[in-house]
Amino acid sequence: MIHAALQQGGRLVDSARRSPRRALVAGVGTALVALTVVGFIAVPKGPTNAEVVADYIEANAQSLTVSPLAAAPTIAPRDAYSATPGIDSLKASGTNYDFAKLVMLYAGWPQSENNITVFTRWMRQENGVDDWWNRNNPLNNGWGSGGGGGTGTYDSLDIAAQNAAEALLQNGGYAEIAAAFASSAEPSVTENAIWNSPWASGHYAYGGHWSYTEVPVVKSPDGTW
């Protein structure tokens, strides 16, 4: 009986000890439920960023009025562009006209119609047309060719063009020719400068031995450049 009472008393003691814990657990549970309920309460939201921007634009809208008297912008015209053939392209083409242009290029003169017209006429008077590349010396130039009377030979037409430019630029007797080419003068001006220079002893009869017909385009043989 006593043992049973002790056991019963022990249970009573255990029950008494457990009661505060149960109360604490119950309190915590109640608090969690309360927090959960609060979490579900809808909180009013402010306007979104997009709405704020839209409201600002609407409130601060601006307008631009252009006077009908306002002048339209003026676009300045651009200079015309033209390509000047280079050494390699002229050599590849290889005609009498290309030789004339190559001399202009080496001398720093314009490859103008006036200049090329006179120079190809000049070449025709010296070596003809069908064999204008004779001895690789189209102008029968003695400068650097080994032939003082213009009978010398150059290793290539390219070298001949360089020497023709040098002779016309550096020999004082050809100064008027160089000036005429440099200014792209009228053909008659440049031709008179050639006739009155010491280039040819006969002076081309001062124009009497000079042809004005159009010079045909003739390509030189392979290996001449």
Could you list some keywords that capture this structure?
single chain, 225 residues, mainly alpha
Largest beta-sheet details: none
* Fraction of helical residues: 40-55%
The overall pLDDT average reads: 79
Structure annotation, total helices = 8
H-E string: HHHHHHHH
Structural category is mainly alpha
Tell me the distance between the termini: 140 Å
The shape is elongated
* Multimer state: single chain
**In percent terms, what proportion of residues is strand?**
under 5%
Output the radius of gyration: 52 Å
Strand runs, count: 0
Low-confidence parts, pLDDT < 50 over ≥5 residues? Answer: 1-18, 31-40
Summarize the structure.
By secondary structure, the chain is mainly α.
